[in-house]
């Protein structure tokens, strides 16, 4: 599929896809007979995972390191797992913070509802 189709399907801009390719987050995407990028389903699956990493706060640098390890092969699986476990701990801590913040908001809303 074209870069515009891939961008639309994964919710990123074509410029972001080109940037991700340039910095090594995604491998060199295949080209069609005209020389245009030709994204495959496995490219979109990887982009979906990258989007999840980014939306949960993983830095671009860490994402690049993860992508580098992934390209290096199966012998890096342990290091990739550790990276994801560390990131998961950060996400879980952020969720706990947000849960406390939500409780504070709920308390305040309840107080306003009781007085108005």
UniProtKB/TrEMBL annotation:
The UniProt record lists the HTH merR-type domain at: 1-69
Mind listing the UniProt keywords for this protein, alphabetically? DNA-binding
Q: Which domain of life is it from?
A: Bacteria
Name the PANTHER family for this protein. Answer: HTH-TYPE TRANSCRIPTIONAL REGULATOR ADHR, REDOX-CYCLING DRUG-SENSING TRANSCRIPTIONAL ACTIVATOR SOXR
The record's annotation in Pfam families points to: MerR_1
- Protein name listed in UniProt: MerR family transcriptional regulator
